[in-house]
Design goal:
By secondary structure, this protein is an alpha+beta fold. The protein contains nine helices and 24 strands.
Length: about 375
Amino acid sequence: MKLLSFIVLWSLLIPATVSGIDMQPETIRVAVLKGAESVTLEGNGLLLTDGNGEPLRVNLPLQIRKYKDGLSVNNRRVRSLRATAPAFLLINGKGYRGIIEVLPADKGILVVDELPLEDYLVGLINCEISSQWPIEAVKAQAVIARSYAVYQKAARKNALYHLESSVMDQVYDGCDIEDSRAVRGVRETAGEVLTYNGAVIQAFYHSNCGGHTEASENVWGFALPYLSGVECKYCLTSPSVKWQLSIPLKKLESQLRSSGYHVFGVKDIKPGIRNRSGRLQDLTIVSAKGRTVISAVNFRKAIGYSVIKSTNFDVRISGDEAHFTGAGYGHGVGLCQWGAKQRASDGFDYREILSYYYPGTKLEKISTD
């Protein structure tokens, strides 16, 4: 769940109140496909309407492509498409609940799933963690995912959708991997969100902090009292806590240049100072063009979030390669998922887990009807 710095800072300034009428948390709009060249849509009992709200009768499955400023649906031209089914629909073979809207976008096709918030959370659980983890960890995940979704809905209330279905917000892959434990985790926390001073928080979370969660200002430059960073030794037994890799200098240099950094002939990478959580604040790239200082957050973004898994790393140059060793996975802000798993195994309930990772917050209930 990572977002471009500008968007994060903008959305942090828009509080979502617990009782606000505009929040309407009962449904959520999720962009499940962006920029697709084509989309296949099918389902039992499928009801279709075009951009004018008129019934659309075509044979299944639907083959949808962008056509000028509209869509081609089985070679029939429409402005947009809206689809529902009694149980679920299949988009490119994956099951999704709710109402599906297919829209032309600047690039390709945009597919938005509008569905009940609690249904969305059931589908999300096994995308973000495993529902087979201790149930108190599953319930903690349900609360923070609900809190994040409610916050983003208020922040983006005038947008075409409230959430991305990727790590840009929260990973959501439809209803195919729903199960009874995911349902239990969501139902036993129904409507519960975390608040601070009466407003729903932006409940950031990540996979593994590597020993200490990160303060929000070190990632996005904006300090929030409930995201100040806490010690977390609970995730250190995780199989993903330690990582290492090697990257050819020419590849690293190319990726940095693609991100706008003028580096040519990289000779060395010098780690800078570390903050209270142990993560690097910046690095100095030594090249034939001189020295270039890059923040560790931007370096990770340039090389790839799944490559440089966190900003808690060391680096050395050997021959024509850069060798990285690090700890943790993710931006490190908010709840550590593997830490929550261990705390649940140790007997802590979801309320205790949440209060540890988001100090000063309260658990409150909103309407989901």
